[in-house]
Queue: 2 jobs
Job 1
Amino acid sequence: MQSMDRARLRSALTRLDRKDRDVIVYRYLLEFSEAETADALQCPVGTVKSRSSRALARLRGTLGEVRSDG
Amino acid sequence: MAESLDHDAEMISALKSLGESLDASPPSDVVSNVRAAIDAEAKRRRKRRWRGAAAVAATASTLLIPGVRTAVAHRFGIGGVKVHEISPAETVPPVGTAFALGQRVDLDEARSAVDYHVLVAPGPDLPRPTVYLRDNGIVSFVYPATSTLPPSPGTDVGLIITEFSGDSRDIIEKFLNNTTDVEQLTVNGAHALWITRGDHFVFFINDKNQDVDVPGHIAGNTLLWVEGDVTIRLEGQISQADAVRIAESMS
């Protein structure tokens, strides 16, 4: 992954709201399982699944904004 | 590459790659550390100890600490550094005993060794500083305490100014706990942070795209700002007005 993309991704992550960023950090950056993420975030596994999907969609949108800004 | 991030699978792959890059700095196994922290949390919140956590680990660990969790994620859109609040369980160098500022040099040596313009705070308000240079290009000015520049507790140091080249594409990110106050202000029109109370350290992204820790050196107040491609931190037992005045006089 190129450093520019990494910087853009970080920037997009910081623009997400807290819940979205938390679930992405645990699930994908730290590669926690859904169960581990649920433990960490103190929510049901089902919530982790739905929140992950929603957070990825928002991250995708935010990446578009970061591109536009950049 | 940017377009490929439109697809979830590739975006997840990019996120994992980002996570791997962040865990490059010590301790070597960030994931294990955080997992261990979670296990400990489940076993009645046993006291945790971390040393110099990488950015992601720091985020996760902060999230796990009751009382801190609600204060996470204050974010600021400037500069090439991340400001990160450390928990009391983390280890920081004892005040005045482990500055780890590098090799003592003169100003010309420091300027010739780095690829950014080293700014200097002029007299006559300040005493003559001692200049230090670290291998990673961090330049520090250490000013002795004077009658107008009170010593930091446990030291005879009145002021430390630290400069390093930051990656301006990144974003300052602040993780708070209940013991630190952060105020946003400006230095020469540029966005700056005034940090009072509590310990902190700063990350920056070096030319190898690695996160480099810059621990706080002395207890006191901290002014952090970006001047061109240089990130500057001023630490001391001084007022915000004096800190800003010194900062704006640097050239």
Job 2
Amino acid sequence: MQIDQDRGESMRDPALALQHVSKSYRIARNRGGTNRATDAVIGRLRHPLRRTEYEDFDALNDVSFAIEPGQAVGIVGRNGAGKSTLLKLITRITAPSTGQIDLRGRVGSLLEVGTGFHPELTGRENIFLNGALLGMKRSEIRRRFDEIVEFSGAQQFLDTPVKRYSSGMYVRLAFSVAAHLETEILAIDEVLAVGDAEFQAKSLALMRDVAQQGRTVLYVSHQAQTVTTLCTAALYLDCGRLAFYGSVEGALSQYRDSFEAFRERQLDPATRAGTGELRFESATMGDTTIEPADDKVVEFTIGANPGLHGQYFVSCHLNDANGVMIAQCDSRLVGAWFDPGAPARGALSIKDLWLKPGRYSVDLFLCKFGVLDAWEGAAAFQVLPTLPYPQIADGEAARKGIVLADFSYERW
Amino acid sequence: MEPRIIRPPGRLDFPPVRELWDSWEVLYQFGRRDVLLRYRQTAIGVLWVVIQPLVAAGVFAIVFGQVAQLPTGGTPYLLFSLSGLLIWNVFSGILTRSSGSLVANQGLVSKVYFPRALIPLSTLLAVLLDFAVGSVLFVVLLFAYQVNPGWAILTLPLWLVAGVALGSGLGLAASAITVKYRDVSYALPWIIQILLYATPIAYSLEAVPKDLLWLFNLNPLTWLLEGWRWATLGQPAPPPWMMLGTAVVSILVLAGGSLVFQKMERGFADVI
């Protein structure tokens, strides 16, 4: 683990300190999980000596760090790196398997907006219920009641059951309650991504205020931009381990590098997910640098497994640089099936999809009843910064949106 | 500020009484929610609280009092069965409501932290409110039938506490076990149904054949009911061993239930 020099030393009493914290989940290997007492008893009677074999899955592995009060710390990492588990441990939702966590102050959490809201209760009743759940006293809620209502913009609907709220209003009210908590430590899991752009900006500003008041904020996100604007330091988690703790730029650059490292690891079929009964052998782009409107061609070869019966199909996901899935191309939709008896070669062509300039990656999946091979980042390509439109306008004209569209205007 | 230290769960942790006490607000809000919701969007609302025990007691009075003509020790049958149902409903109400409460609130359990025991315990409020309404009805009937329970009524709170402790203890354990094994939610209504008839609620111990009496005497709920009828109807006092037994069993059940709950609590979010 790397630690910035200026941060490792000179620590005040930390608001939050983790010492060698691990969390492992036990996954039963030789049975499909018992949810019935009778099954458990019968299983025990049939095989009195057999012990259930467990596989330990380490969601977090020997994580230690300390955070000073008043810091806003971003937590970044790939899916499954342990970000949410870490927040769950700090907020005490689940208990660590080993290690120790020291907390100075109350921990408020915003793990999922609207948890604890009851659809049948009115907005007013829900504010009190939810506030209590999040650890506020009634006097505290009453004191901040007007602020909460005003922030959410739900004044007129306070005495309406929240089941009649629009989803946007529901989320805004829920966020307002949680954001106005007066806890010393606040843990947030990607909830800022809710609501419209205006509300997001308002929420972000509020979160920044929270940190400036000397409260400690922990923020989990996939969005590099929010982490940069909101956080003063960042943690980078990789496969349950703390790989970096220090400056925001440092953590984000490691995070970005990890995509490349991950892609390299995935070249070895043994590291990939899926049952492995059949694997892709290679995947290449027809062209790794293309214009936005060009056809996208992915060529692939697949091994053979004569022992496998029935046909299988292939699915391909196209993702942009932020990890947003742009398109899912499932071969079942176009009636393309493959036979596992012999090695297969094939190509996917995507026509009429205009991509914005930038870097894209391709995930390939091989499926029958389950997933046989899941190859994330099987290929990548670059879309050149040109626009496929007849006229040139300033950059603003095509900045927004995820893809480009083939459109025309007519004047009547 | 002293840090709060979180460690992995130990073998036998004691319930965090202090923390539970500090979060009474959550208990109140949960209970309030249950009460508010129960009769929202109903046509006759709170009247249900009165109608339910009254009709049940009426049916018992007709079936056991008129059809089977069982003895009650001189008390009018309606009064006799209503008295039994009052304390029975406290016990079974807490047990039934709390047993499924954790699973019903699994969204909360896996997303926010608060002492989990508050969820099953919060069912107490709604049940006690029903009890209070039922008691008013009962007192009216006491006057109507001119029955005077006498000084024994002073022991009523103790029997009530015992009923609450038995219900909560079993309810805590049942709710925790339901998180892992949903069988409880199927078995429990059935067990409660059997207990309703196995316990002298709608009939008195007088009606029980002498050679079966020992079987009834094994059931702690019998002791509770005997004591309760002594306190509410002025019937003969139960033998001292029953009084003592009720106290001991209530404490043991409540303590046992809390320990079972505590033992399983910290794994809830992982298995629910």
